[in-house]
Design brief:
- By secondary structure, the chain is mostly helical.
- Helix content is 68%, strand content 5%.
- It has ten helices and three strands.
- Helix 2 crosses helix 3, helix 5 runs antiparallel to helix 10 and helix 6 runs antiparallel to helix 7.
- The radius of gyration is 23 Å and the shape is elongated.
């Protein structure tokens, strides 16, 4: 029964946090316990759960109390790291995930017909041939990924991609292997051209082909 009460209190307190802007004072320990009709210990347990989720911050001193926050990437990485300790994931698994996500993002981006974003994509395509170093290609990939997220607006895909890439970056292996600069340029030209012309099937095909070559070392 006590666990159910803590869970219910956590849900109600979480709703209060999301109903307010980040950084807003949600209330003091005593005020929240009174408003929610629970004991101090129950409220403290619920608050600790929400602090772990990155949704609540306890401040002491003048102006102290519980403040609503939002989880950031670091908090998500910590939570995922805790989960992965007893459930180890491999580097190849992370790359398979990012490859699948990239393929779907590229295909979905073909449905975006916003002139400003298409113009930005055209400008980005014009930079491909000047990416002669690994650093330049890395910078291009970050800009391309950011633009895809703005064209598609799939926050869950963005979250999964960011977290998985960060996980892969903590390993000793390179994220991209077996692909020379010229092959990378040709692949990116084909993908961006398909997106610009609005051909979803072609974009998916080219993204899958690029992923096979880059990640698995296939031609």
């Amino acid at each position: 029964m006590k666990r159910n009460l803590v869970s219910e209190t956590t849900d109600r307190l979480r709703d209060r946090i999301f109903a307010a802007e980040p950084g807003v004072l949600i209330g003091s320990l005593q005020d929240l316990a009174r408003d929610l009709g629970v004991g101090i210990v129950t409220l403290q347990q619920a608050a600790r759960l929400l602090e772990h989720e990155g949704l609540l911050e306890a401040r002491r001193g003048p102006g102290g109390g519980y403040y609503g926050t939002r989880p950031d990437e670091a908090a998500l990485e910590r939570a995922i790291a805790v989960y992965l300790r007893p459930h180890p994931a491999s580097f190849d698994e992370a790359l398979n995930i990012t490859s699948l996500l990239f393929t779907e993002l590229a295909a979905a981006a073909t449905r975006c017909r916003v002139p400003a974003l298409l113009a930005e994509l055209g400008e980005l395509r014009g930079q491909i041939d000047s990416c002669d170093s690994e650093a330049a290609r890395g910078a291009f990939e970050l800009a391309f990924q950011d633009l895809l997220f703005r064209m598609v607006e799939w926050p869950l895909f963005e979250l999964l991609t960011q977290v998985t890439l960060r996980f892969a970056a903590t390993t000793a292996r390179r994220v991209i292997e077996g692909e020379d600069g010229e092959a990378w340029k040709q692949g990116r030209h084909r993908i961006l051209a398909a997106i610009l012309t609005g051909d979803g099937e072609l974009a998916r095909f080219e993204a899958e082909r690029s992923n096979r070559r880059a990640v698995m070392g296939q031609s």
